[in-house]
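Why do we care about 3D structure at all? Because function follows from shape, and shape follows, mostly, from sequence. That is the central idea of this module. The next example makes it concrete: a single protein chain, its amino acid sequence, and then its structure expressed as tokens.
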Amino acid sequence: MKKYVALLRGINVGGQKKVPMALLKEVLTDAGLKAVQTYIQSGNVIFESLENDKEKLQDVIYDAIKTHFGFEVPNIVFTPNHLKTIFDACPFPEEQKENSYFMILFKAPGVELVKSVETLSYPNETFVITKKAIYFYCSVGYGKAKLNNNFFERKLKVTATARNYKTMLKLLSLSTDN
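And the structure:
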């Protein structure tokens, strides 16, 4: 069995796409995933599977949620090592890193779109765009940021899902414990 981390996009936010974690765990177990764990309400799932194809696993999760809950939820699946690589690549100094957000990209954004976004600047906000993630730091807090996950999705024409430093750290801990 191989361990995986799935990040779901846009559930339990603002009263939309409500997915109780206990029920999600049951639905995904019924869909064939093993040792399913969830972490907080924002759509973090750790599980095991014999399947090696992450896209197939994404389809299993997508189909199970759509069938049971009746709405579409994009998701992306990583091995713990792949998630750790993204986490470790954060370019910010430790103090900023501990207060930063990781916007995980479902696909690499186009080079021209990245160039146009990189020219933008807002006070107190710093970001770095890579093929796999946008590393984002706002000194006044994410809730007050002009640049957020929805902004980057629109400008880069990609799907993304954001997690803060503490959530990333916890997901790595949960997925690497044996």
